[in-house]
Write a structure and sequence with these properties.
mainly alpha, Helix Hairpins, 4 helices
Length: about 110
Amino acid sequence: MSTFTVYDAAYALNKCLAENLPRMDAVSRRKLLKKSSKKVVEEAAEALAEAMDMPKSRELFIAESADVLLRFLALLAICGVPLELVEAGLAERVEAFILKEFPEQKAGSP
């Protein structure tokens, strides 16, 4: 199993964008934002298609999931939003999701 993490990916993307965004004009930045937003949606749709064909397409689902994460991390970096800020709201949303989707399970329990 790889030791490369989501944080490694976020760091690499943030570093790349920190070096390149300052050289881009407003129009180029807007195009990059629009293109990245579209790619997040496209990759999510592809991952969903593979998920619907599980377990037969497990490997493809994993690959598409990595693409979704990559594109979303890039979008966060383009928008200047650190992954840690997204994480801050994640615990609350996970708890709400569990309560809604699995009401018989107590929140906070595995």
